[in-house]
């Protein structure tokens, strides 16, 4: 088996071969999603604990459905504030493990938290977002969507537009795409581009036009209008006029360009409503692939991959 | 099959025959509720998403148990405020559908929201309350309770007491009862009676005595003391003295009158504590029938009715 | 069968024989926890309702996993404030029962609430904490942990340190331990020791040293730094210097002393971080036994014990 780790934490430290193995397994999982009876027995008698220290509707739904399709049991112990959990993440992990939990899906506002937890429990930890570090399964669904459309990553030009510095899925995407042989460039206001990002092999632009020129893939992301990002742009109007993607923005891209957005979208802010509903925008595929990728991760980590593939 | 729609949204636009078909199916579902092992396999491998934009204990419990009794999987993504959901209801519906969700149980503060959602997804939508418009399954359980007691609806006099203008279950009940041949009258303070309601064939009274005279069924409803209704009555004392139902209020009703309340009740405000516990008050039947009706809806919408009945 | 009650409410009014029967059943349940496939069919088709009027992460997790391991269905209707539930606990119980709920796991800020509820429904009620009265299943897991280590309770000296007056698990532990033949002493600031507690046969100390001398078991408990207990100690520093348990505190205890903490722990406040991770501290066993005990309760109350043991 190409993936023999206990946990799934980061795209920074795994190999191209491991990524491709997960994506391949996810394709198989997608069959289950298309059945009338979406129930495969692979995780029967296994317990999946949703340990979210940040509320989330989409991620919760995606992980819970993935686990249910594989017949796992789920307990959701989301708390809205870290302080409500009353104990360190390691003590919480110890509790879950002693109660028989097999998987911990961890979302936490502190970068590095999932890794810390994984090192301290025998249960399998899946990083569902740690601070502004990574959201690796969210990146895998992007990679799966690109692979389905383009076949391969070698030589693809991927333009990522928006708050690159504070988006954890973008960080995961950068590590993943570079590893798989794509060329990555980013564009956004200077306050939203991490300094030194060029050293990793990423090209930096401060306008959308240069970034999108000849791109095979354009990724944009939700602008966080109510939380951390607020101080990072002068006004919403200005942000929209410079960094909103619409049909016009794609004129200089490759003819078969695809557009991606992690959702939920601010229609008319980072992406025009028309483009979001355009067939070049693969939001629907991304959502479905998200469930398939999470099923694949649960399946692979449960150590039964050999019996299935 | 008498009901071939994809969704269940309203009692205004469905036929008498369709209503009776659902009620008949609900009677069959009630058998399952009385088994020691309350588990029928009809919805195995189907996913039911609870999409509530208003918190609810009873409705959540009723829908989740109904789905569990039919072996469905459930994910609850209730959020307390619409703004916490971060995207339009249609984009949320698209997300649920792309993840493989089969049913969306939707409760939303905006009238018309369930219909809008239903028109935009392939999944089956059940309206669990949209603004002050309708709560049609809550009405079906009332209709089922009346039918069990009275056999038929033709010529029955039903008196509805309370905030008629802002109660969504009352609106559904009015459409359903009139369609089934009952005579409906309402009573409440003028601020709680919709203007023009007589045009639909409803008789309006401003005192309880006239409304209840010769009634076969008396329905009252929870007075909303802490939210929207507050500005609609002068004082709680006054409301109680004019519109509280107790044993004395029933003296002019038919001898075999039945009393109904959707729960949760404010004991001593809209109904006396004694009457709520009186055997003429069918609250317990209503609650049980609520689960049966929701099982019937899930069952019928899952398109397997033919194989079962 | 040694336990024939409908409910599990209190350790004050049950017999030694009944306690030992539950502990014995819990040992059998522990086997299931150690299986790769943690799924036994004993509660298939039964519905467990989590009716918590106080939020809880650990208790929720423990009860839900226990129910899942026995194949029950679960609906969690936790509300954070009693007033959000909109109706009396008895009316809520009536609702749950009429919907087909078989078990109600009740946590409520009012002492006596679980008993009141149990007297008014046919469903089985498990008291998951009522005010400052009891948390009897939490005590059973402590008793199970002691029994596993010491074999018997007769003549054991158990020292309980902390806010004895306001800890419901401590009250349950006192009733249980005395009933099983142990000797119980307590230590804490005078504001945290119930007046008259000596009359039940408990020895009272106002310093840790006297309490722990020759103890077989030392139990400490989470200091409630943010809620009710705040007014009961002068300063955190003072509390720590007098009542924090660490390795040094155990010097006068029996050589084979064991230390217990219900979790979640305030590391460095009521117990030192080192001692919490010391092998004499049985926190991990307590957590696992908690799930086993709750499985046993669900199993016994479901009236199938005869078929199993």
In CATH, the architecture of the largest domain in chain A is: 3-Layer(aba) Sandwich
CATH top level class name of the largest domain in chain A: Alpha Beta
Low-confidence stretches of chain A: 305-309
Total tally of structural domains of chain A: 2
What's the helix-strand series of chain A?
Answer: HEHEHEHEHEHEEHEHEHHH
Q: Distance N terminus to C terminus of chain A?
A: 10 Å
The dominant shape of chain A is: globular
Oligomer: homotrimer
Tell me the major beta sheet of chain A. Answer: 5 strands, parallel
Instruction: Fill in the CATH topology of the largest domain in chain A.
Output: Rossmann fold
Q: Estimate percent helicity of chain A.
A: 25-40%
Radius of gyration of chain A: 19 Å
Global structural class of chain A: alpha/beta
**Which homologous superfamily in CATH is the superfamily of the largest domain in chain A?**
Aspartate/ornithine carbamoyltransferase
How is the largest sheet of chain A built, in terms of strand order?
A: 7-6-5-8-9
Tally of strands of chain A: 9
**Taking all residues together, what is the mean pLDDT of chain A?**
92
**Total number of helical segments of chain A?**
11
Beta-strand residue fraction of chain A: 5-15%
- Biggest interface between chains: B-C, 27 and 23 residues
């Amino acid at each position: 088996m190409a993936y023999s780790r206990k946990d799934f934490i980061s795209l920074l430290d795994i190999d191209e071969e491991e990524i491709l193995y997960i994506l391949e397994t996810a394709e198989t999982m997608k069959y289950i999603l298309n059945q009338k009876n979406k129930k495969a027995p692979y995780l029967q008698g296994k317990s999946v604990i949703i340990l979210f220290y940040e509320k989330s509707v989409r991620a919760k739904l995606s992980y819970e459905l993935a686990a249910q399709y594989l017949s796992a049991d789920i307990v959701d112990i989301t708390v809205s504030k870290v302080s409500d959990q009353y104990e360190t993440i390691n003590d919480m992990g110890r509790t879950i493990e002693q109660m028989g939990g097999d998987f911990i899906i961890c979302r936490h506002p502190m970068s590095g938290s999932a890794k810390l937890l994984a090192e301290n429990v025998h249960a399998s930890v899946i990083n569902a977002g740690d601070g502004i570090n990574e959201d690796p399964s969210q990146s895998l669904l992007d990679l799966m969507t690109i692979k389905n459309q383009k076949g391969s990553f070698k030589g693809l030009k991927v333009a990522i537009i928006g708050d690159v510095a504070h988006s954890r899925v973008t960080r995961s995407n950068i590590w993943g795409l570079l590893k798989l042989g794509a060329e990555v460039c980013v564009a956004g206001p200077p306050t939203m581009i991490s300094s030194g990002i060029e050293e990793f092999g990423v090209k930096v632009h401060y306008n959308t036009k240069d970034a999108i020129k000849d791109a095979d893939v354009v990724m944009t992301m939700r602008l966080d209008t109510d939380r951390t990002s607020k101080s990072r742009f002068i006004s919403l109007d200005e942000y929209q006029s410079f960094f909103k993607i619409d049909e016009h923005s794609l004129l200089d891209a490759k003819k078969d360009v695809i557009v991606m957005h992690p959702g939920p979208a601010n229609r008319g802010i980072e992406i025009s409503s028309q483009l979001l509903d355009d067939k070049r925008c693969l939001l629907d595929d991304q959502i479905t692939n998200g469930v398939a990728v999470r099923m694949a991760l649960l399946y692979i980590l449960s150590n039964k991959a050999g019996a299935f593939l």
